[in-house]
Each structure stands twice: as C-alpha cells, then as structure tokens.
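Let us practice reading a record.
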Amino acid sequence: MSSPDFTTSDLCDANEATIRVVDPGFRLYGGRIKLAGMIETVKCHEDNQLVKETLATDGTGKVLIVDGGGSMRRALMGDQIAASATKNGWNGVVVFGCIRDAAAIAKLDLAVRALDTHPHKTVKRGWGEKNVPVRFHGVTFAPGEYIYADEDGIVVHPTALI
C-alpha cells in the first residue's frame, strides 16, 4: 500500500482553527512512515488482550490508538499482533506505551508510533475499554475522528481531511 499524499505541516496550515497537534515524544516504527485514518481506541494498562482482539478485526481505513497509560514496563504490541494488523488492513497503530520486536515490525507495511520499546510481554486478562475517548500528550483522541502522522508529528481532526 502506498503512503497517503499529505504533510502534517500542510494540514496544520490549512486547518489551524480546528486541528489538534499531539505533543512530541513518539518514535517511528513500522515499515510505513505516514499514517492516516479513522480513530478507534483501546484503553488498557499492561494488558494487551483488547489490542490483540481489535487488530484481528477489519481495520480498513482505520488507525488504532492504544492508551497504555504511558507505561514503560511492558510492551503492548509485538510482531505477531502487528502482522495481524497488517493482514486485517489497519493503516497504523499509535501506542502510548511500548512495543517490542521493533526489527520485525520495521519490515511490515504498517505505520507505528510508540514511546519506546521493551522486551517484556504483557498479561492477557482482557482488562480495559474499547472505543472510549482517551487523552495523552495534550490531545483527546475520540473514536470516529481522524488522525494523521508523518515525520513531523501527529495531528487529529474531527473530520477527514484527505
């Protein structure tokens, strides 16, 4: 799949009054740099069962936002879950927390943003919530809104811009 044709800088310039810019701090992973799509969310803490279940569903045109509470103690996504996301058509994943298997994820046609990497897996109890507004790095991510990211950053808008 080819990357969408946009820059976050141009989106900001054209939508200054309505666009929300995510505070810096996310690292780029995955084989694709740009991501764009409708937001779905998972809110979980050191438990990636809902992440795994969600990315195993049809993600055509979507980006999963994972609010892991910023935990740096466990990885909320690894190469197997990322491969499932790719297979199911997800445009990308943003993890407010860690991922693992970064080298393998770099080979996938998937855009991934995360705070860092960590080799330790999570527990799987199914704790958490799906498709609720989540807030981190200065922005609220609401299901049904749209997210865009490139080398310059991440932005959120209430409607589709591209």
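A brief commentary: The first helix runs from residue 8 to 14.
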